[in-house]
Amino acid sequence: MAGILDNPTAAVAGIPDGATVMIGGFGTAGQPVELIEALIACGATNLTVVNNNAGNGDVGLAALIRAGRVRKIVCSFPRQRDSWHFDEKYRAGEIELELVPQGNLAERIRAASAGIGAFYTPTGYGTSLAEGKEVREIDGRHYVLEYPLRADYALVKAHRADELGNLVYRKTARNFGPIMAAAATTTVVQVEEVVPVGALDPEVIVTPGIYVDRIVRVPAPVPVPEPVGAGQ
């Protein structure tokens, strides 16, 4: 049964130096910013981070990279207009990059959650990403052998949870959350609301509570109303 904690700091307590941490999110969509901020505050360093991107702007994963806490990042899309902290660290030789095509990244995480030992994929064959990897021809097509990605911890953002840890997500914020939750030894989830058991329609539950270890409620920010006459 998932533990319901009072604050993000308590939720990430115990993450050690050198841990492998999966962080949900596709860019800023579904990124568990408050959990990442708590991870920065707890002081863990020398981390290996698995994420689709390498941080946006100055908050969340970008702030973790800026603080020098990430030794290695495994991702599919490390460079974009606002990934300046990763870019600076990478050019200085202060962070290692393992570049993985997005479909391969998702499937490697899913393979870990499903107990699959390895799988063959055509993606990456004949490129530098396949160097040193086992290849095989199947029915006239060439494939590359890829291995699962597992993590010590997963930090995930969901929309709602019940008291057993069953999760539902909000639209595209779902992205990598479900597979990461199932591929980590310890899964920590921030949600906007925790509801009683039975309040969630079983047909819309995406992540079963068996995969969730810790839950913390982080309410959505209250929108600030515009002053009367604004925009006129």
TrEMBL record:
Question: InterPro entries, from UniProt?
Answer: 3-oxoacid_CoA-transf_A (IPR012792), CoA_trans_fam_I (IPR004165), CoA_transf_BS (IPR004163), NagB/RpiA_transferase-like (IPR037171)
Q: Where is the signal peptide?
A: none
SMART domains named in the record? CoA_trans
Q: Which domain of life is it from?
A: Bacteria
Q: Which GO terms describe its molecular function?
A: CoA-transferase activity
Record keywords, A-Z: Transferase
* PANTHER family in the cross-refs: ACETATE COA-TRANSFERASE SUBUNIT ALPHA, KETOACID-COENZYME A TRANSFERASE
Q: Which family does it belong to?
A: Belongs to the 3-oxoacid CoA-transferase subunit A family.
Name listed for the protein in its UniProt record: 3-oxoadipate CoA-transferase alpha subunit
